[in-house]
Design the sequence.
């Protein structure tokens, strides 16, 4: 078969460094999580395995990793699927919720971070001892009280069982949770596989987008602990099979959009490989542009997203450092003979182009846990895809690709939330923007799905290095005086208490000085 798709020219050359840096895990790879587990300022990695426990890799600080899984407690989380990272007890240590068994009934596990490279199972004492078919989960402070709540999505619960309800657990602030799903009004009759939270109206409250095996749903946050289903009015409820969706600002206009990754049959994916297009009746990915009035428009066809893939995981990130978000798709299905390559779609600011094979990505795979993160802190995003099949004998090795050279300018930002009475270190729900010349590049601290790092990499191609910070969400003012270390590659700027949670603290990963600070943003000059 002659393959046409995936060869669009690109300036970025990728190399597989999984073995070199120590992340070449071979198992039934599922979800991945990237976060600073021990507070040393570097990003660690957790890889879930369907036929093994979770693997914990400590960042050595030199771009390599050490497997410290044995004895960490995470090695006991067997048959795991989704990973969600969040500091639920606000002690400065990110904890981990592990969903189990996916299509089959299983036990999710809340693993509390002990700060010494180990985690303790506190599921029962936290009130999360539930049994259900959960693929994924997400941490989110939906009521703005400064404590992370937990949303767990459920599918069918067995071959002939009825839909198992999704669960919203409210954080009681004392280490325990209460199931408030019914009171919140989060009902769905469709099997749910993924969910994403985002402030789509820029009112400071996080709304919920749900991926179903049927019509998607959008729940508007009413601000009183309840939600309203606005799916039909928003224009996002056309039926499709979708495993995952992402909230992001795809067009850099300061308003969150929705990328809905779709799953297609093998014959449709083969058609796309041969022609670069989707067959009649196919289901290409969807990009719902926020119209700023509570409605959305699917602009995927105008962006060149016309291919069909069996996407089981997906993420966004600027892998070529040009200021535009690109897409990484992990593809496949449970069939042992479907070894479908991950797909890399490069955004040139007008359209997406399939550069998978031109960039050096492998031509086979079975991808779960697609993720992007700057693991070495050098401005190059690593493309992580945990791979592996449904059956115990269908084992593949995790791939990690990175650019062979730095493709453009970058700024790494770490968001840390603060309040006068509560410290919420993860800063979930915040966003930051970087204005370069006349353009603004927006990135998010609201990685509420928990799989991607709360470190944000903002990138741009312009040679000009004068920048201005802007914030959206729970930030109103900034401190007037900021002390910056002159010998370390870090500078920080803290926001004052405004009565809302998640006030960002910016960490700039190159020497700079703050020239101006005020309600309009920070001026930073390298």
Sequence:
């Amino acid at each position: 078969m002659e393959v046409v798709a995936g060869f669009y020219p690109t300036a970025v050359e990728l190399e597989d460094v999984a073995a070199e840096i120590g992340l070449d895990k071979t198992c039934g790879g599922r979800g991945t999580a990237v976060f600073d587990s021990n507070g040393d300022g570097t990003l660690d990695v957790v890889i879930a395995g369907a036929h093994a426990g979770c693997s914990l890799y400590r960042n050595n600080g030199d771009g390599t990793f050490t497997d410290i899984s044995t004895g960490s407690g995470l090695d006991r989380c067997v048959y795991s699927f989704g990973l969600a990272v969040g500091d639920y007890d606000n002690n400065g240590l990110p904890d981990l919720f592990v969903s189990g068994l996916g299509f089959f009934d299983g036990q999710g596990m809340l693993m509390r971070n002990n700060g010494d490279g180990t985690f303790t199972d506190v599921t029962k004492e936290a009130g999360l001892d539930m049994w259900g078919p959960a693929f994924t989960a997400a941490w989110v402070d939906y009521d703005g009280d400064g404590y992370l709540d937990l949303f767990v999505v459920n599918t069918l619960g067995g071959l002939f069982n009825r839909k198992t309800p999704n669960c919203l657990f409210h954080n009681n602030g004392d280490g325990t949770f209460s199931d408030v799903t019914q009171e919140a009004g989060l009902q769905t009759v469709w099997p749910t596989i993924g969910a994403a939270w985002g402030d789509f109206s820029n009112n400071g409250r996080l709304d919920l987008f749900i991926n179903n095996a049927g019509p998607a749903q959008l729940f508007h946050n009413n601000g009183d602990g309840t939600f309203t289903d606005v799916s039909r009015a928003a224009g996002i409820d056309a039926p499709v099979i979708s495993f995952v969706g992402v909230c992001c600002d795809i067009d850099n206009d300061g308003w969150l959009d929705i990328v809905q990754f779709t799953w297609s049959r093998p014959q449709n994916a083969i058609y796309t490989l041969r022609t670069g297009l989707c067959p009649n009746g196919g289901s290409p990915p969807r990009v719902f542009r926020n119209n700023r009035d509570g409605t959305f428009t699917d602009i995927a066809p105008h962006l060149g997203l016309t291919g069909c893939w069996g996407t089981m995981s997906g993420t966004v990130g600027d892998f070529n450092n040009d200021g535009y978000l690109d897409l990484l798709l992990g593809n496949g299905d449970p069939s042992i003979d479907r070894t479908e390559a991950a797909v890399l779609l490069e955004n040139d600011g007008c359209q997406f182009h399939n550069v998978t094979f031109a960039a050096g990505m492998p031509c086979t795979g079975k991808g779960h846990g697609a993720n992007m993160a700057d693991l070495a802190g050098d401005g190059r995003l690593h493309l992580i895809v945990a791979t592996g099949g449904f059956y115990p004998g269908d084992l593949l090795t995790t791939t990690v690709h990175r650019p062979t050279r730095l493709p453009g300018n970058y700024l790494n930002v770490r968001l840390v939330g603060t309040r006068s009475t509560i410290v919420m270190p993860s800063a979930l729900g915040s966003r930051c923007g970087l204005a370069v010349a006349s353009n603004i590049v927006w990135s998010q601290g609201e990685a509420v799905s928990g799989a991607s790092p709360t470190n944000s990499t903002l990138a741009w191609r312009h040679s000009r290095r004068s920048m201005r910070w802007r914030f959206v969400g729970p930030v109103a003012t900034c401190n007037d005086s900021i002390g910056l270390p002159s010998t370390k590659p870090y500078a920080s700027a803290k926001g004052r208490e405004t009565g809302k949670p998640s006030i960002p603290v910016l960490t700039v990963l190159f020497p700079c000085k703050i020239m101006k600070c005020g309600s309009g943003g920070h001026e930073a000059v390298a």
Summary: The first strand starts at residue 14 and ends at 16. The chain has five helices and 42 strands. Residues 462 and 509 are 18 Å apart (CA to CA). Residues 445-450, 462-526 have pLDDT under 50 and may be disordered.
